[in-house]
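The instructor's notes for this session suggest beginning with a concrete chain rather than abstract definitions. Hand out the sequence below and ask the class to guess, before any prediction is shown, which regions might be ordered.
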Amino acid sequence: MRKFIVLNLIAIALAFSQQSRVKIGAEILIEKHLDLIKGKKIGIVTNHTGILPDGRHIVDVLNEIEGVKIVALFGPEHGIRGEVPDGKSISHGVDAKTGIPVFSLYGDVKKPTEEMLKDIDVLIFDIQDVGARFYTYISTMSYCMEACAEMGKKFIVLDRPNPIRGVYVDGPILEPRFKSFVGLHPIPVAHGMTVGELAKMFNDEGWLENGVKADLTVVKMENYSRKMWFDQTGLPWVKPSPNMMTLKTAIVYTATCFIEGTNVSEGRGTQHPFEWIGAPWIDGEKLAKELNYYKLPGVKFEPISFTPTDIEKVTLDPKYEGEKCGGVYLNVYDREKFEPVKVGVYILYALKKLYPDKFKWRTAGQDRLWGTDKVRLMIDEGKNPDEIIKTWEDDVKKFLSIRQKYLLYN
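After discussion, reveal the predicted structure:
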């Protein structure tokens, strides 16, 4: 009898788990909305993150459904199967598993051409984002929407969670003169939106080139709440890019990606990119002491040393390859209180203060990441971080009122 009760409890727990797990847009499309794509010629913009919770890839699943014809695949940065290191151009080719032609959207061509889309009726977008404006997948999505709008093709977004929650919004709004592939639209560094919500905003705010509008459908998730961290969704973590190792990486990313725009290592070439930062000329104890002095909520800075190396299919030629670097580890002990974008300002401020002769900007890259030159210039002027942070607060309030119209989840 006791065994029967235990088995029943396990069955109930599993059923509850399945019911409460977030169901992503791809699942909902397959279960309820195949009418959107059956009998049509399909293109899919995806990569290795385009998997269902059972591990099957969206391309492989749709390719086996009768009446669904996939005629082309489109690969963003890192490629369809996610094996290309950061920043490396990708060529057109053929998907080895399905034999379907693959067009690269990371290289010379970032927006699908008329030739690429001519045989397609519907273009599907299914990629896991990380919640940062400068993560290039949302730029790829925007360019694809634009191309579909110009050619009268339908565009479907299969929604996925924002891993760092859909409630954290912070950072300067992108200024038009700093528009680039790491930021196309006037949104803050941390936007607090899903890709489906962003697609609606880009479309309905008239932000696509020449104000064109795509015939857009967003397939919503089920059981998703915006306050969820990724590890609360019940979904498996798949590295969205080679250096986005874990959810912990994503949590600190909007603090330390700015290190890319300097001569300090952002930890590439280690197993802790973006969680570790450093350089051969940094004293980790000294930097940790300075940063901990600011008492920033939710994070402690711990002194470390590391030596960046090449990691196959992850990092090629990292900064300071083979050189021992001193630095700090961002130990986020309370992720609810941690404010990464603000922490990013404090880190840059501390580096400039402690190492005025050694610390250097990669000016164009730094300004593109922030979407403004104000942060860099104010740090150079010796302005304190609180003054810098105040410069974007009013703009974020305005953005929040625009954003509210496009939120799909509570």
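Then share the key points. The longest strand covers residues 299-306. The domain at 247-372 is CATH 3.90.1150.140 (Aspartate Aminotransferase, domain 1).
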